[in-house]
Each structure stands twice: as structure tokens, then as C-alpha cells.
Design goal:
The chain is α+β, with helices and mostly antiparallel strands.
Length: 96
């Protein structure tokens, strides 16, 4: 049985920001990257433990797509909560 995916407001805002930033100069690339990030997140429904554990927080996991890090939490009921989508060059995101 697949896990349920829940997007936080911060993660949705991050995804929108990624697409808008890239889209300023390369609209087609923005669509491709946005779609790839969404595909990666959707894959977590079938493989929720596929992301590596973040060393500073054992309850936090991440998957990486190129230079973007998708932070998520796997809840006890197997719900995958997408917390942030963050460019690796920006360091660690604030996660609530």
C-alpha cells in the first residue's frame, strides 16, 4: 500500500520559487525541473524510506535532485510530509 504524500505550505512555496527563478531566463527548463521534483516526491509514495536520514535530525529525511534537496518527514502512519525544497548552495533550510 502506498504512503500518502502531504505538501507543507513552505514546500509548495519553495517549489513555486524554484520554478519562478529558473523561469525568468529559461521557462522550458523551469517546467522540466519542476516536473522532475514532483516526480521524485511522488515516487516517495511507493518508497518512503528511500531518502537518506539527515544527520542532525534522525526524524528528517531528504532526497536530492541535482542541486535541490527535498526534505521530508516519514510519519508513524507512513504519511510522507514534504517540508522544504531547498537549493544546496543555500545551506540548511529552517524547518518547523
Amino acid at each position: 500500500m502506498d504512503s500518502r504524500i502531504v505538501w507543507s505550505d513552505d514546500a509548495l512555496s519553495d517549489l513555486r520559487d524554484v520554478a519562478e527563478y529558473i523561469g525568468r531566463d529559461r521557462p522550458s527548463t523551469a517546467l522540466r525541473i519542476g516536473a522532475a521534483l514532483i516526480d521524485d516526491v511522488e515516487r516517495l509514495a511507493s518508497f518512503p524510506e528511500s531518502g537518506r536520514r539527515v544527520p542532525d535530525d534522525p526524524n528528517l529525511r531528504e532526497i536530492v535532485h541535482r542541486q535541490w534537496r527535498v526534505f521530508y518527514r516519514l510519519e508513524p502512519d507512513r504519511t510522507v510530509t514534504i517540508l522544504r525544497i531547498w537549493h544546496a548552495a543555500r545551506g540548511e533550510p529552517p524547518i518547523s
